Amino acid sequence: MIAELGLAALWLAAALAVLQLVFGTIFTFKNAEKTEFSQIVRPAAAMQGVLCALSFLILTWLFARTDLSVKLVAMNSHSMKPMIFKIAGTWGNHEGSMLLWVTVMAMAGALIALIERRLPERTMMATLAAQAFVGLGFYAFLLFSSNPFERLDPPALEGMGLNPLLQDIGLAFHPPTLYFGYVGLSVAFSFAVGALMTRQVTPDFARAMRPWVLGAWIFLTVGITAGSYWAYYELGWGGWWFWDPVENASLMPWLAATALLHSVSVLAARDALRAWTIMLGVVAFSMSMVGTFLVRSGILTSVHAFAVDPERGSFLLALLAIYIGGALLVFAMRAGSVTEGERFSLVSREGALVVNNVMLSAILGVVLLGTLYPLLTEAFDVRVSVGPPYFNPGSAIFALPMLLVMAVGPLLRWRHDSAKRIRPELILIAVLGLVTLAGVVAFAGIAVLPTLGIALAVVVIVASVMPLRGRKLRLLPLATWGMVIAHLGIGVSLLGMASETAFTQEKLAAVKVGDTTQVGPWTVKLDRIDPVAGPNWTALEGVLEASYRGGKPVTIDPQSRNFWSPPQETNESALITRWNGQLYAVLGREAGEGRWQLRLWWKPLVTLIWIGGMMVALGGALALIGRVYTDLRRRRVMRKAVERRSEASA
């Protein structure tokens, strides 16, 4: 009975979305500021959020109690799984993850309807109508193609379990954060379409849109960073980014959202880049839809992908064509009515942001082409592989100048500036970069891209804190602190990426119990092999003693696990983290004659990759808090001014 309640809640939410779309559209094209229609749209949006949250909570409950009369639970859970993985299994499959998508979208629409009061009513109604239009496609997808509450009659005797690679604590956080990011971009898309429909692309529109873009960008940053670390320690291959198509599917929206974030900030603060902001709003959501199609259409084979039948892939492709094609059509029809906004010179902070946005768009094009090209050629029975030899130099061509401009941009003034004013800072940045470059070339002798990466990382790290020079730190706005920390995080991540790429040492050995081997500054001894058992797996555990430069040994225990539902063998890596890097160990199979395969890596400064990523997200969070606080204070001041004028006139 409870599963039927969850399905009924979904149907009611879909019906309210129809109501929201119809009455919101009528109000948008009705030349009036207040009608009875506006009193229907906001409650309909709010109630959708409640109903979808109820539906998702019911599905979570069904997974938690392992209700094997529900097909989705039987296909993706097991009574012997730990509770955390039972709950995480709710979104660790196609139907459940799509319900999570719809739930977050509905709750976002409800939040907009309840709290947003800055936009003119027509633009607000157009935004909510656009949000309902997007939501309806996903409601239809769930209800007609991917019902998460489908029953089994009779119930299964036992569940099939969850993919062992996904039975990791990271799964409890990684997919939801990405979904919050994707859905935040759908809200930005709805704002952009609403402003286009009413021709009200104004700073007020940008200020209303900016928190959603910033929130989406923060969640995407956290999701990509966490996903990178999950793949690094869980898959056992020792890398942090493989340019897998599904990895790219999350990177592309982040690149577009980064460009959109800077553009909408310029529009909010300086009333410039109006058409550019609208276009990026459409592109950012387009990339999240492309990513959804790649992951769920069944055309990719990946540990991250949900391989589904072609019928569902066709449904998603149709949604992609309708949403993006429709938005581009509206943009083509209305872009001419979007005025240019305030002008600025190339040598200005706005100019630097435009250059960076162009570079980000170019990197996005490189990644999109490299991701889709193998799929296009495969349609003609030609198999090609596109990997790091294409993506690394292809993206670096645009990333290197972008980072240089990013280092200089915050030092420039708005509207108009001159290089002469910041000459001392430019000289310092140039000297630091050249000295670092010369030092790496002279003493390290590494490849070109890592060399440039280390030099640029130093430049970005130093330049990111320069806006603090000569200012009272206690009085700095949170948004400024956010910008500084986010840019500093990019430099830190870049230093970690370049160092790991340049200086990683690997050792593959076949050792007996008691043997030692060397990798970088580490001496590793295989002490013993122990059989161990978990709640739904058994394993052989290698107990290793590792000492750094002859110091005190540290014990680590990589495992070779065998899951029995579903049956699969996995490698559980073991890590030792120091300030200057990580020792990464993987236990392989028995190699004969009592020897065991042991794979070791020493990865200098690799942890800076994820430390920097979290610094970027922290900077975004500080900026979001600062922007929201500033907007609330501005509205409070305006409200008091209106009250004083009313009292004076009375």
From TrEMBL:
Residue span(s) of domain Cytochrome c assembly protein: 91-297
Query: From what superkingdom does this record's organism come?
Result: Bacteria
Any one GO MF annotation of this record? lyase activity
List the Pfam families: CcmF_C, Cytochrom_C_asm
Quick check: keyword DNA repair in the entry? no
Q: Which InterPro entries match?
A: CcmF_C, Cyt_c_assembly, Cyt_c_biogenesis, Cyt_c_biogenesis_CcmF
Please list the coiled coil stretches: none
Q: Which residues form the Cytochrome c-type biogenesis protein CcmF C-terminal domain?
A: 317-627
* Spans traversing the lipid bilayer: 6-29, 41-64, 98-115, 127-145, 179-199, 211-231, 251-269, 276-295, 315-333, 354-376, 396-414, 426-446, 452-468, 475-498, 608-630
Q: Where in the cell is it found?
A: Cell inner membrane
Q: How does it sit in the membrane?
A: Multi-pass membrane protein
Any idea which UniProt keywords this protein has? Cell inner membrane, Cell membrane, Cytochrome c-type biogenesis, Lyase, Membrane, Transmembrane, Transmembrane helix
| Alphabetical list of PANTHER family matching this protein | CYTOCHROME C ASSEMBLY PROTEIN-RELATED, CYTOCHROME C-TYPE BIOGENESIS PROTEIN CCMF
Q: What does this protein do?
A: Required for the biogenesis of c-type cytochromes. Possible subunit of a heme lyase.
Homology family: Belongs to the CcmF/CycK/Ccl1/NrfE/CcsA family.
Q: What is the official name of this protein in its record?
A: Heme lyase CcmF/NrfE family subunit
Species name for this entry?
Tsuneonella flava
> Taxonomy-wise, where does this protein's organism fall, top ranks first?
Bacteria, Pseudomonadati, Pseudomonadota, Alphaproteobacteria, Sphingomonadales
